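Example record

Each entry pairs one chain with its bound ligand, iron/sulfur cluster.
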Amino acid sequence: MYIAVASGKGGTGKTLVSTSLALCAGECAYVDLDVEEPNGYIFLKPVIEKEIRCELPVPQIDEQVCTFCGECAKACAYNALMVMKQLKKTLFFADLCHSCGACAYVCPVKNALKEVKRTIGKISTGKTGTVKFIEGRLDVGRPSGVPLIACIINDFLDINDLLIVDASPGTSCPVVESLKKSDYVILVTEPTPFGLHDLELTIEIVKELGKEAGIIINKDNGRSALIEDFAARAGIPVLLKIPYSMDIQRAYSEGIPLIEAQPGIKEKFKEILKKLTAGIGQ
Ligand code: SF4
Ligand code: SF4
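Structure tokens for the complex follow.
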């Protein structure tokens, strides 16, 4: 089962929730797909066993063979190639390239354009107790985390595991990629107008993907029913409210998992896992 933990923006407590779920699950795999800023390791403190570089194909043009016809640049939807016929020069902007392969496909001249590998990030695997740990980390300056996320989902996950996935934040392509194969999405939010705004956007994606979802309200101060009212209107269950507490904030800043900072909350996470694994949406 693939449980994705998502939020409309960073800093709402997505990692707080996903690491707590993983530690409560006993045997599971924690997967950090927040590849631009993975930080689950701070709380889980895994022993890393393997590190694998993730590589993608990018074009390399041999200007001795190239006829400067410009077909490759024309085919590139991302403006990553420029061909200057009169100067007999080509320019490749690696940071714009999405490794789609269109340039190599359309090039009519044999051996003018070949694909070479370019590293985009690193995948680390390891263990913390009985929890398997998998983390993607995008190299600085790479344009998109999507290929790295797809590589982890397709090649590094065992579908027989209970997968607790710390999804990318936001509402763009990386979060869509992180949620696509999920069986259930836990949306973490805060009881503020900003929290509600981001939650509404993320729910649009979840609906579009046809996923079941539940909400966890973080930093609940007991004074606002903003999220609960919205959840009732949208027909989405509120699974848990995590109180606003200086103890939790202090523990978070020191890399102490929530279930250690608030031992009483462990049973509530176990209850959520029990319900989700017994039957999605119950
Ligand atoms: S399509 Fe091939 S031959 Fe034409 S400019 Fe590009 S690399 Fe050169
Ligand atoms: S692989 Fe795709 S994105 Fe990259 S240069 Fe070629 S056509 Fe453009």
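The first strand starts at residue 2 and ends at 6.
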